[in-house]
Every structure is written in structure tokens, then in C-alpha cells.
What does this fold into?
Amino acid sequence: MKAAVLALADGTVFTGRALGYEGESAGEVVFNTAMTGYQEVLTDPSYKGQIITMTCPHIGNYGVTPEDVESRRIWAEGFVVMEASRLISNWRSRERIHDYLQQAKIVAIEGLDTRALTRHLREQGSQQGVITHVDLDPARAVQKAKRAPGIVGRDLAAEVTCKDTYAWSEGSGEWAPVAQSSNGRAPHARRWRVVAFDFGVKENILRRLVDVGCQVTVVPASTTAAQVKALNPDGIFLSNGPGDPEGVPYAMEAVRQLIGYRPIFGICLGHQILGLACGLKTYKLKFGHHGANHPVLDLRTRKVEITSQNHNFAVQVPVPFTGVPAQPPVVETPFGRVAITHVSLNDHSIEGMVCLDRPVFSVQYHPEASPGPHDSAYLFQEFVQLMEKSHA
It folds into this structure.
């Protein structure tokens, strides 16, 4: 089997076996701690610009299923696994992970010590790297990694967003949760008109919005506040997406003009953009949060949620706190008071916030959980309740 090399910008080199498409690829190397869901991870647009390392040692045993994709293509720049299974055992699967990567022209590597790589990234931080099947000289590979563009300041949302506005009507089908409105009755089908900004939206988010009774119109990341208002929505959704929120200042400006116009719900990059729009700051995490097993505490209820996460940046408040606050901290912004509602139990970073004087809230993690647990699915219903309240 053909040899391959993974080189990091700090000079660290790992050797392994070629997987996927033969070639060379560069990106920021991160690790994901989910045990399943590799297909959803690969097709999550939030991974644009990154090489994904799966910490689970055995990847590919249930193959690839077309119905499980999260977007129109694979967005990751590369893929790193300890062992890629050539045998698949799920009746729904159509092909092996190796063939899937080949057809998508994704350069990957297997056979290296992913535990050692993960520990290195935890200690030294995420950094640029290169996977190569064609030039195995370690020194040259390291130099290529050093020259590879980073994600700080880059507008990656523009590279993954839709080109045109479109309507989305597909729900979760047989997997749909039983949704209820605030009065306990089933919601009217597609009653609430929601405009969803596509910064790199996952399809399961759109399905969950439909499940709770939303009629969804997806718009490009560059859509202005005036264009949103022309659609006369009942609510506005800010999606997940890749990279640095400060790289999309046009989105921040649009959101700033929309705060207070209609209820707003943001997830992941949408949460960060909302934070910037409110006057808060963001910062880059040392190695990011990527996985389906991250504990988050809701400071309002003291309930712990196990969450699915994928982000490299976080919102920062003017008065930082350490540990777990006894009450939701409140900060003053140009748009009124903002309460911090959720924190990570791993590093105490901000995972959720709500505007106390505007119908606006957001979370850093992924309540649509694909892959991942369903602990946070209630947030979609909270969005509906916010729209119901604004129309009361």
C-alpha cells in the first residue's frame, strides 16, 4: 500500500498509508472526538479549510449512505484516521469510505498514531498541516505546511454559502421528534416564515426547523437586512459555518440592523456573528471544540446537556469569568442586556446567550445533533415560542 505523510507547521511529521484520492492537500489540522457520524462530519461546511482527525480508531465500518449527507459535497480539506475499514456492515450503505473519499477527490491518510497526534494538538494547539501522497520528503512537507493559509480573518462562509435564495420544505421524516407548541398542541405545519442565513448551514438544521412548523427560505450569506425585511419573515435564523466570524463583516452588519426587527436564533458561527453584532468580541480557541460528546451547563436550569460541537472561535464577554457561575452573568451591550445562558464544562467558554431586551438568543453548539445526542433539541421549540410571543 502506498505511503503517505502528514506534516505540521511546527515541524512534527507522521507517516502512514495513503487513503482516498492520491494527491496533496493543506489545511488546519483539528481532531473530532465523535465515535460515529464521519459522513456527516465530512459534509459539514463548517470544516471548510480544515483537515479532520478522527480520534475513534476504527472509521468506515458502516460505510457511506447518500441520505446521511449534511450538504451537497465534502468540504473538509483532508481526513486522518488510524484505520479505515474496507468491510462495511450497514444494510443502508452504498460504498466504502475509501471509495467515497476517492470520488470526492479528498486526500486522506491512515495508519498513523491518532492518539499521539491528538495529544500533540491539545498541547500545541491546532495548526496548519499538509497530507501528501506524492512528495514524502519530511522537510519539504513541513515547509508547505508553514506556507499554507490559516483560517484567521478568512471569509470562508462566502466559499460554502448558496448562490441563490431557495425554499426548504423537507423535514426529518420518520426520524422527526414529536413537536408541540407552547400551548401543548401540535404546531400548524409550516406556519412560521423563517429566513435562514446560509453561512454553511447543515441540512439537518433546516429539517428541524421544518419539524417545528417553520416555512424556511434560505438566503446567501451576503444577504442584506433590507433584502431580509422584503421577505417579511416571522423569524430569522443564523446558521453554522466555517472559520473566523470577523472574516464576514457584512453578515455582522446585516444582523446588527435586524436585531429587534424579528426574533433571531443563531447557532455556532451564527452565534459568534450575533455576538459581534451586539458589540462583544470573539477569540480563537487553542484547539477548538469538535465532537458529539461535549458537556454544556444551562445556567438557568443547572441542567447538563451532552452536545455536538464544531467550532474554532468563541464569544468573549468584557468581564471574563472563571469556573462555573452560580447565576447567568449579564453584560451591557449597545442593544441592551445580554445574559450568558450556557457554558462549556470542559473549558468554561461561552456556549449560549440571550438578549434580555430583544427577542434574540443563540448557542455555540449544534442542537440539531447530526451526529450527536438530542439533549438540546428543545431550542428549536424555544425559537417557535419566541415567534409566537412576538405575534401575541
